[in-house]
Amino acid sequence: MSWEWSHSPEAYEVARRNLYAKPIEDLQVIWAEIESSSKDDEGFYITNTSGLDLDLYKEKLDESKAIAKDDLAYRIWAFMEQFRTSDNGGFNAWCCPYGCHTVSMDERKRKR
Fold first, then answer.
1. CB count, 10 Å around CB of 3?
2. Confidence (pLDDT) at 22
3. Once rounded to an integer, what is the mean pLDDT over residues 46-54?
4. I need a labelling partner for 50 at 20 to 30 A (CA). Which of 32, 65, 96, 101 fits?
5. Whole-prediction pTM value?
6. Nearest Cα residue to 34 out of 89, 77, 88, 1
7. What integer pLDDT is reported at residue 35 of this predicted model?
8. Residue ranges per domain, the chain?
C-alpha cells in the first residue's frame, strides 16, 4: 500500500537531499527503472514489476553511465515530485514506480 505525499516543505527538502546523497550506482538503477516502466491507458505508472520492460531497462542502465550524478538525481526528483508517492505511513518517499527505492523524509534517518 502507498500514500500520496502530504508533508511539510521541510520534509520534501530532506527527501531531496537524501536522494542527492545516494550513491551514483543507485541513481543509475532508479533512473533506468523510471525510464523503462510502462503506463496504463490513463497514463499512470504500473506499480508492479510486470510494467518493467527488461530490454529497455538494460539499455537505459547503460545510458545512465554517461549522465552526471547530479543530473540523474535532478531527473529522479522531477519524477518523484510528479509521482508524489510514499510508503504506508508516509515516512519514505518512493524514488521509482515500484517503491523498492525510497528516501526518508525524516532528517534523522538518511536511508540509502
1. 14
2. 96
3. 74
4. 65
5. 0.86
6. 77
7. 93
8. 2-104
Handedness of CA 18, 16, 29, 45 (dihedral sign): positive
Place of cell 515500484: 98
Cell 508516509: give the residue: 90
Are 27 and 18 within 8 A, CB to CB? Answer: no
pLDDT at 1 > cutoff 60: no
Residue 72: which of 41, 29, 38 has the closest Cα?
29
Nearest-angstrom CA–CA distance, 85 and 95:
8
Q: Which band of pLDDT confidence, cut at 50, 70 and 90, is reported for residue 57?
A: very high
Average pLDDT over every residue of 11-25 = 94
